[in-house]
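Before the break, one more example. Copy the sequence into your notebook; we will annotate it together after we see the structure.
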Amino acid sequence: MNNGRRTVERPTRSRASPQRQSHRMSAKHKKHPASEHGPEHESDAHSDLPEEISELHALLAALEAERDDLRAKYQRALADCQNMQRRSAEDVDAARQRGVESVIASVITALDNFDQALSLDPEKVPVAQVIQGVRLIQQELLRVVQRNGGAIIEPRPNDEFDPMRHEALLREPSEDVGPGRIVRVYQPGYAIGARVVRPAKVVVAPPADEES
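Here is what the structure looks like once it is written out:
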């Protein structure tokens, strides 16, 4: 007797067959396959570490040997450079010393001539002979200058004034030379090659605008 109530029957789930359960387990197995890098692979990786460490030690040793070789080469090159600088300085000093000795040896002859001139009795020697002796000494000294690469700067009247080689002491009007040109040489100059040791001291004519 249902007393007027309607009975609802619940559907019962049917259990899956063993074949279907086996199929599901097989699918799960395919979704999560066994890892290829298992404990055996990790063991192989650990076994390679000593070999890699040995290779790194060998590389480090090679780099250290190369460093030591480069350091030795640098030290040898530095020592060679220092020796070359020392030898160059010694050569310069020796050349300077030889140059000084050469100049002194050249001047000695002129000094000997001075000694001979001073040893003469002025009351017995004519003035002309004294002047001739002084002229010979002057010529000897000029030869010393020329042998050592020097040259005389001695412009002639009416030469163009060169401020790089001449020094104007004063201006003097002259009808014999052009405006701004050299009238006469007061004192010769000297040069070694292109370098002026002492400019020639000269008297120059005033420029044209000053004359007018």
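The longest helix spans residues 39-118. The longest strand covers residues 166-171. Try to locate both features in your own notes.
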